[in-house]
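Lecture notes, unit on protein representations.

Consider one protein chain, 275 amino acids long.
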Amino acid sequence: MRYEDRLLRVLTYIHDNPEGDLSLDRLADVAAMSRFHWHRVFHAMTGETCAQVVRRMRLHRAAGRLVREQTAVDEIGRDCGYPNPRSFAHAFRASYGTSPTAFRKAGRLDAPALLQRTGEIKMHPVEIRDHTARRLIGLPHRGAYMNIGEKFEAAAAMIAARNLWGQCGPMIGVYFDDPDAVDEKDLRSFAGVEWCGDEIPDGFESTEITGGRTAVLTYKGPYATLKTGYDALYGGWLPTSGETPADAPCYEVYLNDPRETAAEDLLTDLCMPLA
């Protein structure tokens, strides 16, 4: 088995079993390697320990559920691998800078634009930039946009395993459907990275982002609350801008690394191509 395949098996297992046994011994079994050697291989290929990846993935899933669901906080914690509410609250605060309850409350205040009363949309500055065309390599995703992280993890692991980062630009997500108009299970997206090489590497798919005038809102904060930025872009800026969106999907450019950056300091360019 190739090391790339071992890594992908482990990442998929973590995503599919957030509440299960994700100990180093179990993940080494999934990788079909010894505990000692697997830990070194995993860290060298991803830049994180197994424990760091498990914690980040579990809390990312929890954050998304907190702002999307009415499920009890403690139940979400249990489903994401934290049977003790205090340990869940401690881990969440360490990563997101606030308690799960406060995070949920802030998310509820940032309701969809059409449901807010006049004046309640949180505004963000928007710039119009001329973007060049980009070619991406990556993996397609179908289903809830909040679950695209699994494909980003897999794409990054494949790039690292083949030492391709030197031919890549930033990570970019392309979102082809309106989540308010398309059933969640049918949402189409693409987890990619800008590709500066020639031939598309085996195992990857590719997609193109056309260049041109683009409205860009730089959002600061956790990925789970990005909808706040889209509400400001569509519900606040666009109606008074005099601009018309192009017949092309929005995309997100991730400006820093979630492995090394606190959730509240993550920066994401939300990009809307213009006609």
